[in-house]
Design a protein that fits this description.
mainly alpha
Length: 139
């Protein structure tokens, strides 16, 4: 399993890169003020970091219990990304609707666009992260 420090590095890098990509896109999509969007993006990033840490820790435990080892196949990576994005969707729709003064439906539709982005982003990011920072061997 990964160390707490490694999990922290994983999460911080993930969120920093995502903020750099997503913030300008939301400003463009919504025509909302940059300060408002940047504040929302930062708040959602904080939520995502906390959820990411807890989710990945729990996912590792379940994966090891089911498979007897940590083995990230393509199928497992797809499941991991889908489940995490579902959890984020549930957490973020009310916040987006309130912050950007949208209906829940508008927030849901906007979030769907970003789910597609983050599914691809999370899949690629986690794969690259595992290559650059491999899980320490337990043997």
């Amino acid at each position: 399993m990964r160390t707490k420090l490694d999990r922290l590095r994983h999460t911080l890098l993930f969120e920093m890169l995502a903020l750099l990509i997503v913030t300008p896109l939301v400003v463009w999509m919504t025509a909302k003020p940059v300060v408002s969007v940047a504040s929302l993006a930062f708040a959602l990033s904080m939520i995502a970091m906390a959820l990411n840490y807890m989710f990945n820790y729990a996912f590792d435990i379940v994966e090891i219990k089911i498979k007897g080892k940590r083995d990230r196949t393509v199928k497992t990576r797809i499941l991991h990304a889908l489940l995490f994005e579902l959890a984020m969707l549930i957490c973020t729709i009310p916040i987006i609707a309130w912050w950007l003064d949208m209906t829940y439906w508008q927030a849901f539709m906007m979030d769907l666009v970003f789910i597609v982005f983050f599914l691809v982003y999370a899949f690629v990011y986690n794969w690259v992260y595992d290559v650059v920072f491999p899980v320490p061997s337990t043997t």
